[in-house]
Amino acid sequence: MATKVIIKTTKGDIRVRLYDETPKHRDNFIKLAKEGYFDGTLFHRVIKDFMIQGGDPDSKDAPKGKRLGTGGPDYTIPAEFVYPQYFHKRGALSAARLGDEVNPERESSGSQFYIVWGKTFKESELKQMEKQMAMQQEQQVFQSLATAHRNEIMDMRRNRDRNGLMQLQDKLVDETKAKCKEMGKPTFTPEQVETYTTVGGTPFLDNQYTVFGEVEEGLDVVEAIQNCKTSRDDRPEEDIKMTVVVE
């Protein structure tokens, strides 16, 4: 039987189902909820037509103007991408995390999460995103191959071996193309296309952040929160507190 939690907020209740296919995130969320970790925290970052974010312990009784968004327990959670089965549709519960430059493994924050609102997209927009995803895939593969040859590249640079560098670059480009062909072009599934063009979401976050649950009741509450007035740092001007209860 699926685990369900209720995020009780000052705007109403949001009932969420946690996925069994993301057990580390599920178990951690349940543990924190039972400990009362989230109780009294705020939805501290809200961006209209995008998402609502909470789970920062530093947001409890935080005075106006206090910088929020960096708090959490002293651990991260390994990424659990169950993609494309679970994606960033409207109502998806996902884990926040630090950026790729300091977090290449895309490990999740120990406590911070967000609920997707997003918007609807045209099929042509999704096609354009697929092209961008393919380019990003190529860049990531090339970068990882270049990193593996880092010492060799540094030696060539020190020796000003331009021919050697050009030959190695050509070789890595060929390896990148072969690897990407083997991996297959990133594309949205028919279910994703249907959902993103009718219900909405944030497709550009897919396969980047762990999706570990979804809203079953209370999307109207999510809508009300994402519509609230915010300050320049995206914090709601009126504090929206939460308490999380495991059903």
Report what the structure shows.
By secondary structure, the protein is α+β, with helices and mostly antiparallel strands. It folds into 2 domains: 3-120 and 199-246, Beta Barrel (Cyclophilin); 123-183, no CATH class. It has 6 helices and 10 strands; from the N terminus they run E-E-H-E-E-E-E-E-E-H-H-H-H-E-H-E. The chain has helices at residues 23-35, 123-148, 150-158, 162-183, 190-198, 219-226, and strands at 3-9, 12-18, 43-47, 51-54, 76-77, 92-95, 108-109, 113-116, 211-217, 242-246. An 8-stranded antiparallel sheet has the order 3-4-8-6-9-2-1-10. A two-stranded antiparallel sheet has the order 5-7. Helix 2 (123-148) crosses helix 4. The longest helix is centred in the middle third of the chain and has 26 residues, at 123-148. The termini are close together. 32% of the residues are buried.
